[in-house]
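=== How it folds ===
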Amino acid sequence: MKRIKIIHRISLIIYLVIILGILYSIFTVVRLFPSTQEMYEGIWNIKLPDNLEVVYDIHTPTSFHGDGERYTVFKVQEDFIMRENRKGQNDYKKREEQEKFALGILELLDVSPEERPNFNNYYVWKVHTKESDKLLMMYFADNHCFYLFQHLQ
């Protein structure tokens, strides 16, 4: 009888260790894959609002170097103020250049028209660059959507 109690206790300890090991493994794997928002923040060293919800996300197949194109649409839960590049906001050539860049990524990724921003609506934009890498951020207040176009080389 005493032997059975000892075996029960050892079995219980083994089960607990196994369950804790599984939980730890799941936690570790989840942390290895950052969210889309964390990925942008890490690559570009920027802070995005906490209240973002991914509505659409598409990218080229990930290469060994992590280069390629990515297009993400976030829904913003409340009004969002983006500190845009005021110098370029009213410059039609600069604005046209950014739209051309965005359209190039949308075409490359074969994004359907329903998932694309309407460039005829008012928006503010900001560009981040690192060497030959580029991130274009556009915010459309009419639909509370935040569009990110990324090119990594």
Observations:
- The mean pLDDT is 86.
